[in-house]
Amino acid sequence: MFAVALIVLALAGGSTATYFLMDAPRREALKRLAAVLRDREDLEADREELEIALRAHEQRSRQLAAAVAANDRRAADLGTREAALERRVISYNDLTAENQLLRTELKNAAVHAAYLEQVQHASRSGASSAADQRDRLGRLYFEEIASAARRQVGPTTFATAVQRVQAAARQVRADGVGLTLEEEDAAQTALHKQFERVTRAQVEREVQARLRDQAREEQARQREAEELARQAEQAERERAAVAAALERALTDVAGRHATEVEQLRAQLAEAEAKSQRAKSLAQQTRNGHVYVISNIGSFGPDVFKIGMTRRKEPQHRVDELGDASVPFPFDVHMMIRCDDAPALEAALHQTFRDHRVNRVNLRKEFFRVPIEDIATAVRAHHGEVEYMADPEALEYLNSRSATEAELQVIEQAHARAEAALPVAADD
């Protein structure tokens, strides 16, 4: 019994000693395990913060892309409104000129009526003073017509003005007025000089308008570049913030959990790539203008070109199409601003595919179809649209009525106007 008790005591003492010897390493192991768990929790928290930052960065990138697209749409809308305003101003000037012309014609009619009354009175009285009165009134009528023609002459109405003066001279001579050829030539010479002044002023205005357009486009490009630089700087700051958060995460965990960090880096690179793609897509949107134009002097009636342009100033594209490759400028019948210009253009081309002028070369976008049918198709695919039914075609109409002598005067006036400019305008 004594031996058994001794053995039990020995075993109990050994167990107690072993417990006390292993307790310190056990506590140390538990402390290390707790530290590892805390580090893992901290890393999870950092990863959640980085994911939130990445989502915020992606949302900011989408907002920037939407802002760029909105700015482009506003700039295009402003250009369209400016072009429409210029067309309305031109129409108002034409209306004012027509009103002045009508008033002049009424005045001339009154003068001519008084002149005819004097002629009838002279025929009844047979007095020589009546003949003098007839000559005086006839010359007064001719001078009034010549003065009105000088006031109304424009860069494209010279032939019409010359014909009015010639018709007035024939009329007063037919009524017995002794209007000399020298008097008629003097009136024609004064008309030519006025036409040269008007032409020179018109050329100068066109040059100044081109310079102003170039200045506006340069300013718009500069503003766009500054805005893109600002957005790029903002995106870089956001990228740097995310990168700094990654560096802090790397420092905090002392290089542990490198796989998760690399995944975060890959996510950051993907977010940056998405941001760049969003900017690229925002700058190359499908916004634009679909135009419907005609050139009756070049292609005849009811032939229209249906095309599109992404330029902020769509009229510049129309002016390019009416350059030296065709004899007359194009008239704009419709200028449609839309968010998907290629789709609207394709829909109109498909609608009028059977009316193509050139059916083997689809890049030639000319169609022989009434303008009303085009307006109906635009309403069906886009919505309500305003359009001009009849072409203005001023140069074509005046070219048909101009004589050889008038054409020589026009050529000389343009040559002198170009030579008078201090600096030749670029084509």
Q: Which tags fit this structure?
A:
427 residues; mainly alpha; four-stranded antiparallel β-sheet; 11 helices; 4 strands; rod-shaped; Phage_T5_Orf172_DNA-bd; GIY-YIG nuclease family protein
**For the terminal residues, how far apart are their CA atoms?**
126 Å
Rg over C-alpha atoms, rounded to the nearest angstrom: 42 Å
Indicate the overall shape.
Answer: rod-shaped
The total number of structural domains is: 2
Please report the number of helical segments.
11
- Mean pLDDT score: 76
Structural class: mainly alpha
Q: For the largest beta sheet, what order do the strands appear in spatially?
A: 3-1-2-4
**Poorly predicted tracts of residues:** none
Along the chain, the helix and strand elements come as HHHHHEHEHEHEHHH
Q: Tally the beta strands.
A: 4
Overall description:
The protein is mainly alpha-helical and 427 residues long. It has two domains: 1-285, no CATH class; 288-392, no CATH class. Helices cover 76% and strands 6% of the residues. The protein has eleven helices and four strands. Helix 2 (128-152) runs parallel beside helix 4 (181-253). The protein is rod-shaped and about 180 Å long. The N and C termini lie far apart (126 Å).
What's the arrangement of secondary structure elements?
Elements lengths: L1 H124 L2 H25 L5 H17 L6 H73 L4 H26 L4 E7 L1 H4 L3 E7 L4 H8 L9 E8 L2 H11 L14 E3 L2 H11 L12 H8 L2 H17 L7
Antiparallel strand pairs: 1-2, 1-3, 2-4
Helix pairs in contact: 1-2, 1-4, 1-5, 2-3, 2-4, 3-4, 4-5, 4-11, 8-9
